[in-house]
Automatic annotation (TrEMBL):
SUPFAM superfamilies referenced in this protein's UniProt entry, alphabetically: MFS general substrate transporter (SSF103473)
Gene Ontology MF annotations: transmembrane transporter activity
Topology within the bilayer: Multi-pass membrane protein
Compartment list: Cell membrane
UniProt superkingdom: Bacteria
UniProt organism field: Acrocarpospora phusangensis
Keywords: Cell membrane, Membrane, Transmembrane, Transmembrane helix, Transport
Pfam family, one: MFS_1
Key word ATP-binding present: no
Segments passing through the bilayer: 53-72, 84-103, 109-130, 142-165, 177-197, 209-228, 234-257, 278-302, 314-336, 343-364, 376-399, 411-431, 451-469
One Gene Ontology CC term in the entry: plasma membrane
Domain Major facilitator superfamily (MFS) profile intervals: 18-473
Protein name: Major facilitator superfamily (MFS) profile domain-containing protein
Length: 479
C-alpha cells in the first residue's frame, strides 16, 4: 500500500471511500445471486427451455462462485488485491452484459458461470484491503457495516428485480436486471482505480490449480445429475455421477493432505478436518444453506407461476422474511453468549415458521395473499437471523490463527456450494411433484410437500448442530 507516514499512523487516507467501493461490490454480488429467482419465469417464457433452466440460472452462478472462492483470495495475495478487484469488477460487468444480451438459455447459463467466477475474484479482495486500510480502533466499525448492507440487499434485491421486470424499461424486460450492472460495475471500476490501495501479502500462498479442478469437477458431478436427472427420467448415468462426486471429493481430500506433506500450499489446510467444530460446521452449513436456497427458489416460482403474482408482487411477498432476518440478527446479539443454544433456538423458530407457511397455504389455498403469508415469513426470517448470528464464530472455534484464512474461505465456499445443491435438489423435488401438466392443485401440492422437505432439512440442521462446540470462544483443545 502506498501511503505517507502520516497516513500510515492513522490508516489509509481514502479508507472510507474505498470501503464504500467494496460494499458496492458486495451489493452487486448479493443481488445478482438472488434476482434470477424473481426473473426465472420471464426468462424461460422469452428464451424457452425446460424447467431445468430455472434451476441452472441460480445454480450455475453459485457453483462457479463456490469453486472460484477457494482460490480468489489467494490471487489477490499473489498479484495484488486492487488489481484482482478491478479484474473481477470488469469481468463481472462483462458477464452481466452477456447475460443481458443472451439469445438462448445456454448462453445465459454460460454467462452466469462467467459472472460467478469473476465475483469470486472480486469479493475476497475486500477483506484483505480492509485489514490493511483501517487502524484497529476502526476495524470493528468497518466490518460492522457489512450487516446492514446484507440486510439492504436481501430486502431491496427482489423488489428491485421485480420492479425492473414490470417496468420493462426500453422494452428490455428481464434483461434489465443484468444490464443495470453496467453503470454500477463501471462506477465500481472507476472508483476502485481512484480510491482502492494496492496491497498484497508479503508471504503469499502458492496456487493449487489441480485442487481447484478437483473441487470443481466434484461440484459439477453432484449438481448436474440432480438438475438434469429428472428431465431424463433418472438414467443410470445420473446415479453414477453422484457416486463419482463422492469419490472425487475424497480424492480432493487425499490430494490436499499429500500436498501439505510435500511442503506445498493446499487449498484447504488438512488439519482443519481433524477439528470437530469445523467438520460439524461444514455439515451443518451445507444442509442449512441448501434448504434455504432451495426454498427461496421454490417460493418465488410458486408465487409467480402458481399464484399468478407479478414479479414486483412476488419480490414484495418475500420482504417480511428479510425484515424478520434483520430483526433476528439484532435480537441475537445479547444471546450470542449462549453459543450453540442460540443457533438451535433459531433453527427451532425457523421450523415453526416453515410449518406456519404450510398451515397458511392449507387455510388460504391458491387465494393466499402476501399479507396472509407475512406472519409465518417473519417468524422464519427471525429464526434465520438468530441461527446465522453465531454460526461462523461457532464453526471457527478452536481454529488456529494460521488456519483462519483457509477455514473462512472454505466456509464461504461451502455456503455457495450448499446454495447450488439446494437449488438443484429442492427445485427437482418441486418440479417432479408438479408433473408434466401443472394445474392449480398440482402447484399447491408441490409447494406443500417441498415445505415439509425444508422443515426436515432444518430438523437435520438441528441434529447435526450438536457437532458444534457449546460456545464460540471455547479453547481449541479438544476440537
Amino acid at each position: 500500500m502506498t501511503t505517507t507516514a502520516a497516513d500510515e499512523a492513522v490508516g489509509y487516507r481514502w479508507r472510507w471511500p474505498a470501503l464504500f467501493v467494496i460494499l458496492g461490490a458486495e451489493i452487486m454480488d448479493l443481488i445478482d445471486a438472488m434476482v434470477t429467482n424473481i426473473a426465472g419465469p420471464h426468462v424461460r417464457a422469452d428464451l424457452g427451455g425446460s424447467e431445468t433452466v430455472l434451476q441452472w440460472l441460480g445454480a450455475a452462478y453459485m457453483l462457479a462462485m463456490a469453486t472460484g472462492l477457494l482460490t480468489g483470495g489467494r490471487l489477490g495475495d499473489i498479484f495484488g488485491r486492487r488489481r484482482m478487484f478491478l479484474i473481477g469488477a470488469a469481468g463481472f460487468t462483462l458477464g452481466s452484459l452477456l447475460c443481458g444480451l443472451s439469445q438462448s438459455p445456454e448462453m445465459l447459463v454460460g454467462s452466469r458461470v462467467l459472472q460467478g467466477l469473476f465475483a469470486a475474484v472480486m469479493i475476497p479482495q475486500g477483506l484483505g484491503m480492509i485489514k490493511e486500510m483501517f487502524p484497529p480502533k476502526e476495524m470493528a466499525t468497518a466490518f460492522g457495516m457489512f450487516g446492514p448492507v446484507m440486510g439492504l440487499a436481501s430486502v431491496g434485491g427482489p423488489i428491485l428485480a421485480g420492479w425492473l421486470i414490470d417496468a420493462d424499461l426500453f422494452g428490455t424486460g428481464w434483461r434489465m436486471i443484468f444490464l443495470i450492472n453496467l453503470p454500477v460495475g463501471l462506477l465500481a471500476f472507476a472508483a476502485g482505480l481512484r480510491f482502492l490501495p494496492e496491497s498484497r501479502s508479503p508471504h503469499p500462498l502458492r496456487l493449487d490449480l489441480l485442487g481447484v479442478a478437483l473441487a470443481s469437477v466434484a461440484g459439477v458431478l453432484i449438481v448436474y445429475p440432480l438438475v438434469q436427472g429428472r428431465e431424463k427420467d433418472w438414467p443410470a448415468w445420473a446415479f453414477v455421477m453422484i457416486a463419482a462426486s463422492v469419490a472425487v471429493f475424497g480424492l480432493f481430500g487425499v490430494y490436499q493432505a499429500r500436498r501439505r506433506r510435500w511442503g506445498r500450499d493446499p487449498l484447504i489446510e488438512p488439519s482443519l478436518f481433524r477439528k470437530r467444530a469445523f467438520n460439524g460446521g461444514l455439515v451443518t452449513g451445507m444442509v442449512f444453506f441448501a434448504g434455504m436456497a432451495g426454498f427461496m427458489l421454490v417460493f418465488n416460482l410458486y408465487t409467480q407461476i402458481g399464484l399468478g403474482y407479478s414479479p414486483l408482487k412476488a419480490g414484495l411477498a418475500g420482504v417480511p422474511w428479510s425484515l424478520g432476518m434483520i430483526a433476528g440478527f439484532g435480537l441475537a446479539q445479547p444471546l450470542l453468549k449462549f453459543g450453540r443454544r442460540c443457533f438451535q433456538l433459531g433453527t427451532t423458530i425457523m421450523i415453526l415458521g416453515v410449518v406456519g407457511v404450510w398451515a397458511t397455504l392449507q387455510i388460504a389455498g391458491l387465494h393466499v395473499t402476501p399479507w396472509q403469508l407475512t406472519p409465518a415469513l417473519v417468524v422464519t426470517g427471525l429464526g434465520m437471523g438468530l441461527l446465522m448470528a453465531p454460526f461462523f464464530d461457532l464453526v471457527l472455534a478452536g481454529v488456529e490463527p494460521e488456519e483462519t484464512g483457509s477455514a473462512s474461505g472454505t466456509l464461504t465456499a461451502i455456503q455457495q456450494l450448499g446454495n447450488a445443491f439446494g437449488v438443484a435438489l429442492l427445485g427437482t423435488v418441486f418440479f417432479d411433484l408438479l408433473g408434466d401438466v401443472p394445474t392449480g392443485p398440482s402447484f399447491e401440492n408441490a409447494m406443500e410437500v417441498t415445505l415439509w422437505v425444508v422443515a426436515g432439512m432444518l430438523a437435520l440442521t438441528f441434529a447435526v448442530s450438536f457437532l458444534l462446540p457449546e460456545k464460540a470462544r471455547e479453547e481449541s483443545a479438544g476440537h
